[in-house]
Design brief:
Helix content is about 35%, strand content about 10%. The chain is of the alpha+beta class. It has two domains: about 90 residues, no CATH class; about 160 residues, no CATH class. A six-stranded antiparallel sheet has the order 1-2-3-6-5-4. Strand 1 and strand 2 form a beta hairpin. Helix 2 runs parallel beside helix 4. The longest helix is centred in the middle third of the chain and has 21 residues. It starts with 7 loop residues before the first helix and ends with a strand.
Length: about 270
C-alpha cells in the first residue's frame, strides 16, 4: 500500500510526524470499524492491489466495503463477515461516535472530579503537587526487551455479561480500555491511541457482527507490532493540543487520558 492510500495529514496527527515510508504505515491506527481493520490487514499481507485508496474505501457503505474485501480476503484465508441487511444500505446507517460515549473515569482515583482543580497546558497537567506529562511515541531502542515479540499479547479479557447490562458493560469496557492503553504504551505507541469513544464504538461494531472483540484487538496488536518493528516513529511532541477539561479523566493513579476529537492524548504522572 502506497502513501497515497492514506491521508498523510491524518497520519501525521496520529504519529506526530510526516512519515515517508511505504507498506502499512500504521494503517490500523486509522481504522475506525471492522471493515477498515480488515482492509489494513489484507494490505499488510500483500493482497488487495485493486482495492481503492483507504479514504475512498472509507466512503463506501458497509455492504460495499465487505464485498470489496471478499476476494482479496479469501486469498489470505480471512473470512469477511457480512453486515446485517438492515444496516447495510448507507454509510449514514453506521452508528456514529458521539460524546455520549464518555471518558472512563476511575472514581476511586479521581476523587469525584479532582481534575476540575487541575491546570491544563499543552504538554502537561498540574494537579496540586502532581504533574502529568504528555506522552509521545517511543523509538524501539527505548522499549523493554520483548515488547515487540510475538509472545507479548494484548490480552483484553472476554466480556461474559449481558449486553443489556449497561453497568457491567461500562465497567468491562473501562477495564478493557486500560489494558489496551497499557499495551500501546508497551510497544511505544502511547502517542497514537484510540479515544475511549472509538474503543467503545469498535466493541459494539464487531460484537454486533458476532465477532470476538478480544481476538479482533489481538490481531490488530500483532500487526501493529510488525509495523513498529519496521517503521520509525517520531518522538516529537506537538507544539499545541486542543483539550476540553470535561473530556479528560484519570484511568489510574499514573495516567490521565483526554479525547481531543481527531486525536487522543495521554498524560503520565511524573515525580
Amino acid at each position: 500500500m502506497r502513501l497515497s492510500s492514506i491521508s498523510k495529514g491524518v497520519l501525521w496527527l496520529l504519529l506526530m510526524s510526516p512519515l515517508t515510508v511505504n507498506a502499512g504505515n500504521f494503517c490500523l491506527l486509522l481504522a475506525e470499524n471492522y471493515y477498515e481493520q480488515l482492509y489494513c490487514e489484507i494490505k499488510a499481507m500483500g493482497q488487495g492491489r485493486r482495492l481503492p485508496s483507504f479514504l475512498d474505501f472509507r466512503r463506501n457503505n458497509e455492504l460495499t466495503q465487505a464485498m470489496l474485501l471478499k476476494r482479496p480476503a479469501a486469498k489470505v484465508g480471512v473470512e469477511v463477515v457480512l453486515p446485517k441487511r438492515e444496516v447495510a444500505h448507507s454509510r449514514e446507517a453506521v452508528p456514529k461516535i458521539t460524546q455520549a460515549q464518555t471518558m472512563p473515569v476511575n472514581r476511586e482515583v479521581d476523587g469525584g472530579g479532582e481534575l476540575g482543580q487541575c491546570l491544563f497546558y499543552a504538554k502537561n497537567i498540574q494537579c496540586g503537587g502532581d504533574n502529568y506529562h504528555l506522552v509521545g511515541n517511543q523509538a524501539n531502542s527505548k522499549l523493554v526487551q520483548g515488547a515487540l515479540a510475538s509472545t507479548n499479547k494484548m490480552e483484553i479479557p472476554d466480556y461474559m455479561g449481558l449486553l443489556s447490562d449497561q453497568q457491567a458493560l461500562s465497567q468491562y469496557l473501562t477495564r478493557a480500555y486500560r489494558q489496551y492503553i497499557g499495551k500501546m504504551l508497551e510497544i511505544g505507541l502511547g502517542g497514537s491511541t484510540f479515544s475511549y469513544a472509538k474503543f467503545d464504538f469498535l466493541f459494539h461494531d464487531v460484537t454486533a457482527k458476532g465477532i470476538d472483540f478480544s481476538q479482533r484487538f489481538e490481531t490488530m496488536f500483532r500487526f501493529l507490532k510488525q509495523d513498529k518493528q519496521n517503521i520509525a516513529v517520531s518522538e516529537t511532541l506537538p507544539d499545541s493540543v486542543s483539550l476540553v477539561r470535561e473530556r479528560c479523566g484519570r484511568l489510574d493513579n499514573s495516567l490521565v487520558v483526554c479525547d481531543g476529537g481527531r486525536k487522543n492524548y495521554l498524560y503520565r504522572h511524573i515525580n
